[in-house]
Every structure is written in C-alpha cells, then in structure tokens.
Amino acid sequence: MKKVTLLLFIFQCSFTFAQFNPTAPWMDNVQKSDSKEATIDEIKSAFDAYWQDKNHKAKGSGYKPFMRWETHWRNKVDENGYLMTPAQMWEAWNQKRERSLSRNEILNDISNWEPLGPFNHINTGSWSSGQGRVNVVVVDPNNPNTIYIGAPAGGIWKSTDAGLNWTPLSDYLPQIGVSGIAIDHTNSDIIYIATGDKDASDTYSIGVLKSTDGGFTWNTTGLTFNNTSTVAADIFMHPDDPLTLWVATSAGLFKTSNGGTTWTNNLNGNVKDLKLKPGNPNIVYAVTNNRFYRSTNGGNSFTMITSGMPTNSGRLIIDVTPANPEYVYVLSARTNWSHQGLYKSTNSGINFTVTENTVDIFEANQAWFDLALAVSDTNPEEVYTGVLNIWKSSDGGNNFTKINNWSNPFQATYTHADIHFLRFYDGVLYCGSDGGVYVSSNNAASFTDLTATAQIGQFYRISVSKQSSSKIAGGLQDNGGYALSNNQWKNFYGADGMETAIDPNNSNKYYGFIQNGGGLYFTNNAGASLSGSIGAPEGEDGNWITPLVFNSVGELYAGYSSLYKLVGNNWQNVSINTSFDGNIERIVIDPSNDDILYIADGQDLYKSTNRGETFDFLFSFSSNITSIEVNVHNNNMIYITCSGINGVVSRSVNGGLSFANFAQGLPPIGRNVIKHQSNHPLNPVYLGTSLGVYYRDDSMNSWIPYDTNLPNVTVTDLEINVLDGKIIASTYGRGVWQSPIPSQLAENEIALLSIENPAASVINCNTNSLSFLVKNTGSTTITDFTVNYSINGIDAGYNWNGTLASLATTTVEIPNITLIRGNSIIQATIVMENDTFSNNNALNIEVSNNDGGQVGVVNTFETEESTLLSNHEGSENSWQRGIPTGTLLNQAASGANVYATNLDGNYLDFTKAYLYSQCYDLTPITNPIMRFKLAFDIEENWDVLYVEYSTDFGQNWAVLGTADDPNWYNSNRTPETANDCEICPGAQWTGTNTNLLEYSYPLNAFTNESNLIFRFVFHSDYTVTNEGAVIDDFVIDGTLSTPDFENTSVAVYPNPTKGIFTVSYGNNSPNQIDIYDVTGKNILSVRNTDLTDNQTELNLSNASNGIYFVKISNEKGQTVKRIIKN
Q: In 3D, which of 1072, 1032, 1064 has the Cα closest to residue 1048?
C-alpha cells in the first residue's frame, strides 16, 4: 500500500507529459493556440512543413524520432488535441485502481502476466542489431559491480553483477522515462532519478524522484513540474555533501542543499547539460542550446562565457576529466544540427579554442535528438563523440578516427546507431544508444553489449502463430524485426520494425515491415535467418505503421493508398476501383470469410465483400480508428476503437451498419487495440490501453482491468492463441508479456493443429506419406472423424476411428501418397459430427519434395529430368539452367547446358539464391567425394558463392569445408576480419576465374548419413554486380562398401537369381535390408516389421539384369553381399 499511496500523491501534486523536444528544428514554427501548449496537430503541421522539401529517408535526418513520438502520443490526447493534463491522468489512474480493487467481486480474475522478453537476442539478419534505447548509465561510486541504467520508456534498471543481469525498479509507477541518475556516495541506498525522456519525449517527466531503500520504493522530492513540456536531464551530486545536488531541466538548472526537499532555479532556460569541475565542485558548468555558463559559487549564480565559443549553436554538450581538471570540452551542433565543432578550454572554462578537426564526426543532422561527449578520466587528450557512430581523438580533438559503423553489427566496436550517452567510470567507457548499453575497458578497441536481461524493447506491433503461442514476430523502435522461436529471440532485420505477420498455415514464415512500409522482410525458418525482402509498391509510401495481415489461406495483404496483395514477390493493387482519402491505417479480414475485409481510412470504416476489389463506406467516427475486430463466430459483430483518451469503443451487431457505445467502465485513457477470444461461450474481449489491459465478456456490462503483474505501461498490440490459452501483449518500453485467458471446453470440439509430414519448412526426400496432428479440444472423448485432403487439387479422404480423450492429440498417418518432384500444395480439413467450432479445422501448406541422387552418375544438366530444385531470398531467383552466353562466362564443361546465376548477363543485387542437389544416402559408400566444374566472375569480397550441407532435410545448414581445404574455396574473409566482406561466411569463392575448373571435396565425414543434401549459395549485396557463376558436371562419387558383419552366418541364394532370392542371416537379427544397384541407387528397402526370424525372401523380378548389392544392417553394424540377376 505504501507504493500506491505514494503514487497517488505524485499524481495529485504534479504530473507532466512531454511535448516534443523543443530544440527540434520544426518546433520554432509551431503555432500555439491561446498561450496553451501546442496541440499534437499543430506540432505535426510544423513538422510536415519542415520536411516538405527534405529527404526524410536519409539516415540520421531526424525524421524518425518525431514519427516515433507522434505514434506513441497520438492516442493520449483529449478531443481538442492537447496531451493529457495532470488532472486527467490522475483521474484515469484512480479509476483503474478502484476497478482493480473491486474486480474479484465481478470476475474470477485469472490474469497473471509474465515477461517473454526480449531479454537477449541473436542477430540473424539485422544490419543494425539492438534491443532497446538507453539514455543514461551510472556506476555506484561505492561498488563498481552495481550499475544503473535509465531507459526512455522502460524506467530505471539495476545490476549488481557488473551488467550481466538487470532488475526493473519502477514497474509499479506509471510508465516513466529516466534521463539522469545520482547515487549517494555515502549510502548506496539513496538514489535520485531525473525522470522523462530528455531526447525524444517518449515519456513524461514527474520531476526528480528519490529512493532511500535502493530503488525498491520512490518518493517525490520538492522538484515537480506543472506543465506539459518540462523534462529533466542529467543530475549530479556534490562529491563531499550528499545533500547538495544539481539537475538540468528544460525549465532551468535547479539546485537543492537539503537532499531534494526544496530546489531553487539558478539558471533559466533550456539547460541541456551540466558538469562539476573535478576536485572543485564550487565551479559548475552548464549549457543551454546555444550558450555556455560558468559558476564559481556552487551553482548559485552563473556567468555566460563567450570567449572562443560559437555565436550561434543548435545544441551544446559538455565533458570534463579528473586527468586534468582545467580541461573543459564543449561539442557544438549548428542550428541545422550538423557538426559545428569541438571547443576546448584549458583554464577551467574561462575561454575556449575550437579544435582543428574538420571531419564531419556527426555524419547527420540529428544532434537535437542524440549527442554525446566523453573525455577519458586518465588521459585529457583522449576524446570520444557520438551521434550516429562513435568517433575518437587522441590529440585533444584535433583529429578524429571513426570507431564503429552503425550498419556493421559484426564489428568488435559495434554499439548500434544513435549515441545518446558516453561517460567514463574508472577507466571504463560506457555507451548508451538506441540499441542498448555497451562497455569498453580498452579505450574503444572493442565494446561488450550489456543489454541482455534488460527488457526495454519498444514494440509497435506483434503477431503470434496460430499453432503455437511460443512463436512470435514483432517490430521494435529502431531495432527492427524480432522473431521468437525455440525460446530464443532473433533479430532478423533492422531499421524500425513495424507491423508483422505469421503465415497461418506455416508457422515458420514470418513477415515484417520497416517504417512507412518501405520494405517487407521475411524469414522462412522462424527467424533463424533473413530469407529476403520485397520493396514497397512503386510510387507508394505507407503510414509510419503500414498495416499487414494474412487471410486464412495464407494470402498477405498490405495497406498503402490502396489495398495490395502479395503475389509471388510482387505487390498487386487489389482495390484499384476504390479511392480513399489517405493511406489505409488498419486492415482486418473476417476470420470466418476471407471474402470480407474491413479497412480504416482515418475516421472512416469501409467494407469489401469481394476480397478487396471494391469497398463500400460503412461508418464515420469522431476520431481516427485505431483498431477493428470481427467476432470469430458471429461476423455481424464488429468492435471498433478510436484515438484519444475519450475515443470511442464501439460495437456493431449488424455488420457495421450502426454502432453502440461499448466503453462502459473505462477511464479516459488511450484505447489502442481490441481483440476477441474465440471458442468461448461468453465471447471475452480484451482492450490494450495506455494503462495496461482491460477485459469484458457477455456476462458483464463494463470493462475491468486484466493486469495482474503487468507493469503500468502502454500496450500497443494484443494477440490471442486459443489452443494454448494465452494472450500476448506488446508494450512500448517493457517488451512482450503473456497471460493465461479463461477457458471453457465445448462438449464436442476438434482442431487440426498441423500438417506434420511432409513438412513445409524442409526439403522432403522421397516423401510417400502424409501425417496430420489432431487435438481433441472438447470435453468428451472422440471416436471418429474424417480428414479430407487434396494434393495439387486432387481430392482424397481418410476416416479415422479410435479413442481420443479430452485435450489429447493423435497423429493421423496416410501412407502411399505420391508427391511430384518440386513444390506441391497440400490442403486439409477435418470434419466431425456436432463439431462446435469450425475456425480451427483447416490448413494448407506448400511443400518441397526432392528425389534421391545416384552415386557415380554425373549430372550434365542437359535434360529436363536433370533439373535441380532452387529457391531464393531477396529480389528473385538467380539460378537458371540453359546455355550460357555471357561475355566472360559462356562455356559448358560437357554438352551445352549449365546452371548459372544468369545465363546472359549480370546477376541481381541483394539476392541470396540456393541451388539444391538431390538427396544422397552415403551409408553404403566408401570414400565418397563431391566434384563439379565451376567458373565465376563475382564482385570481389562483397559478393560470394559457397556450398552448404544439411543432414536433417534442410532444417539446418552448415558451410561445407574451409578455405584451407585443397581444391576448394579461395577466400576466408569474414565481416570481423575485413570491412569489405559483410556477407562473407568465412569460406567462399569470390573474385574472378573464368576457366571451368574442377573442384572437389571429400565426404568421408558423412558416411553415416542417409539423407544428405547439398546446396550452392550465391549471395550478393546491395550494389555492383558481375556475371556470377557457372556450374556443370556435378557428381557425388564413391564405391559401395562391404564391412565385416558376422559374415559367416549371412548368405544370399540362389546366386545368380532370376528374381526371387533368399537372405539368410542366422542370429544377426537385422532391422533393415537395402538393395543397391552399381550406381549406389537404393531400389528396394525392407524394414524390421517385414523381416522374419532367420531369413527373408526378396524379389528382383522387375529389376534389370546386372549386379546388385544387398546391405543387411542392425544396431551392431552391417554387411554387404553381392548378387547377380540374370
């Protein structure tokens, strides 16, 4: 109760929300109304005017920080467009608290939220990998293993093991940002935090808070703000007097001499930074946007210093060093926020001299958003700066060297883009960036990422697999697309990750947009790698969050100025016959009828009944639509949420012809997303808001909080997986969370969970059966059902009989099916009498089927039958079979045909193309070896060709061999060892050799593998292309082996044979007999279920005359016998 009481006191005393950073260039042109704070539309108008003649897509332009801010705050304004006032926020919080206390009287609340992360991640495809923004890092002066970080929307976090593990300290507070931290050097339990997001106003500021118990609880101090634009920045404590502190704020520099009880404003203006002179805290330095100030009386008064300083700046930042207390460095940005200069004082800030450096160490015009400066605490001439990247000077700022590159996450010095914080503690340099917190103990020769376990991700949207709640895709602010599978988060693309979607029929296919729908990135293996990308439709620029959604059969739609559908790798304009007023903001497809789509265009709701070809206007609301949901079991019931703290929550029961209020019980808070839970008789509905999650069902007439253990945080998206009984929430600042949902089993209910075999995510080898995973999701035992299926449009059925208990699963096997070589479409529907819900009964997948290769047979690629499987990630497939006619690559090794990346010209930019071998069984082969002819003309180092292998049907791949192997690759460069090899695996062919030469690799390590697949991988980067590669005469060679296997007791007779013969094996008890021809092709296999005790009769009557090899195997070994058929 102490926490709650304190929190209420905070709100009653003072509360502030953040207007956008007042130093942003467009803020000078904001036209405010009647002396009030500017409305969000007034700020947006000024922003649009500023960017009208500028390139907002340029890296470091400063466009994205505002778009993030507007997206976050747009739904937290009143009906006039003003950000929430302290009184409004207090009332909303109070109403939520009261409803939380009384909810058990209304509902048996089962909410129990638990964090899903990301706590850590692996980079599988991002060019700018990171996890979440960090504003400030402070090391406990009494214990170097205790570190605190402040996040712009994730609050304050504490580590007691030097950054290996982090614990949140402010979850019970309404979502706050932290930009400054000070720790009492006489008592580590006393901590002060300067709240708010000083750089981008992602969150509000409530002034300075104080904890006396190590961050377990927080108290207000005497410094609180009474308007909607003041934010606090850095805070420092007097080195000898822990009751004296200074804090920089956008309303001035404040000082306390009594531990925060009272504060005085001793320097008016937007104070961006302050520092104390090392060894003499009476000298205090401070800067506003364009002025440097110096105090000699402990910050009680200040004198402006102009000597040597620029006359007009856009932003200034300071640092000092105990290595020479007389040194003061000031880094300055011009009024257009580009690099102006580094200014240096050697007499304690009395006058300055600009350093000689002329290199653009900013590399951007976004210094109003992020700007950092640090001076070594052991060498006063060693200076570090940060905007996009970190730069280092070893001569006092006269010359700088670039330390890292934001787009090369493989560098040892990588720290992500957008550097907000740099500071030394005891010789160790800490960096806070848009990607997390990084540390260097070797003067920036390398950095270590310490962000792991800090769940500070700012998610825009998430998508959850229909089959499993453990598979999630999501988009993060400046940290790209994240994929969760196998309990591991993968960062599979970069930029700002936005709307995501998971294929409803293949839970390994994840898709995700970047900002403005500028690129669609996808992974075919649940994030294990980036599989490719597709550009926006020509001439289209979508909303900041461009909508993306699948229908039930796996068709993917996106909303720009029109509705588009993805066909292959191209966008097709579906709604060409309908014009909208602006970009489409929301798309929802009726879960029971793919023909019906709803879209939101601002305040207007439209409906299509023909898959988007035409739309009819339905309804106009009072503010922009933020969410649309269709009841799964009654598609006449539609739910709508609209923007603003008083935005409507409405429900229609007549297909959208009219709507009624559905917001009863909600406080005035942002209503972001609404979701309906299917397969429950009470029709539960969930609402994601700026104060957590709310719940309502048919037994209730108002909403109640559904938030046990959920931090007080903005919920940006909700997804429900009914099969697992889970609801998943994305938040803006605290990552992804999950809670159970109420369940009530129907009496008769069945679900088709997945098509298990053939698998959609692998290369199937000679598949001849189907299998389906089925679950009894009802309360009574199931004894029969039917699986109706089709393969490439040919229908069939299978009747199952047995006993399937409630909540049990069974695998339905259908043998003796035939799949073509290549891709096939399999569709399946499960049918049961009196089935309650039909929304979980159908699936369809596309599978790839390969055939077996013959050892010793050379593939010259001369016939259609010699065609290999191929696919790609990126623009389009590069591998082509035919006659090469390039300028350099125009010959075949034998015959006329080859496989080439392009038969008559250069290969494509930004593609990763795969050419697959057949499946090989090497278990009967001695000394197997791969051989092929290759000629290549590949952009040296930047583009590459290499060979991979898989032993698990293509689920996992590894590079075959190294550059040290004879007669193999010609390069071992990696992204870590070279700056011109960002896509190199470390073993590859690159450069030019136009002679068709034979390359070979021994495969002795794979003689125990019965399903071995190889693939040629051709990978090109974003620019510059050559002719590529030509491959011919591919062969896996070797001889059949005959190991000893209690040979005296094994016999085959009669030998020779006309066809029927007997295998006698005495006491060997084999579990398998295989027959191979002289090429190594398996022509007959008999498993243990068909083997008799001591001998088995086999039939070669249909085989050609010749020599065959009979392999008899068990767990102890194997033997091979030769037999002649004549």
A: 1064
Sign of CA dihedral 652, 653, 656, 658: negative
The Cα 460–Cα 545 span in angstroms is 8
Task: Say whether 631 sits in a helix, a strand or coil.
Answer: coil
pLDDT category of residue 714 using cuts at 50, 70 and 90: very high
What pLDDT score does 4 carry?
41
Rounded CA separation 1102/1005 (Å)? 35
Q: How far apart, in Å, do the first and last CA atoms of the chain sit?
A: 93
CA proximity to 454, closest of 675, 150, 246, 657: 150
Confidence tier at 1077 by pLDDT (50, 70, 90) = confident
- Is 2.130.10.10 the CATH number for 457-578? yes
Angle (CA) 624 630 633, round 5°: 170
What is 1047-1125's CATH number?
2.60.40.1930
Domain ranges of the chain: 457-578, 621-742, 750-850, 864-1037, 1047-1125
Domains 750-850 and 1047-1125 share a fold: yes
Q: What is the DSSP letter of 385?
A: E
Task: Produce one character per residue of 282-316: b if its CB has 16 or more CB atoms within 10 Å, e if not.
Answer: ebbbbbbbbbbbbbeebbeebeebeeebbeebbbb
Nearest 5°: CA angle at 640, between 634 and 642?
A: 175
Question: What is the value of pTM for the model shown?
Answer: 0.85
Query: Cα–Cα distance between 334 and 981 in angstroms, integer?
Result: 35
Class of domain 621-742: mainly beta
Residue 974 tokens read as 């990696």
Superfamily name with CATH number, domain 750-850: Immunoglobulins (2.60.40.10)
Residue 998 three-state SS: strand
CB-based burial, 327-358: b 16+ in 10 Å, e otherwise: bbbbbbbbbebbbbbbbbbeebbeebebbebe
Integer angstrom CA distances of residue 100 from 173, 708, 736: 15, 9, 22
Overall size of the chain counted in residues: 1126
Backbone angles phi, psi at 916, to 5 degrees: -100, 140
Please calculate the CA angle 356-359-364 and round it to the nearest 5 degrees: 135
For the record, the structure tokens of 1062 come out as 């007997």
Contact 133, 456 (CB under 8 A): yes
- CATH code of the region 864-1037: 2.60.120.260
3 state SS of 926: strand
Q: What is the rounded CA–CA span in Å between residue 845 and residue 825?
A: 6
Residue 92: the pLDDT is 73
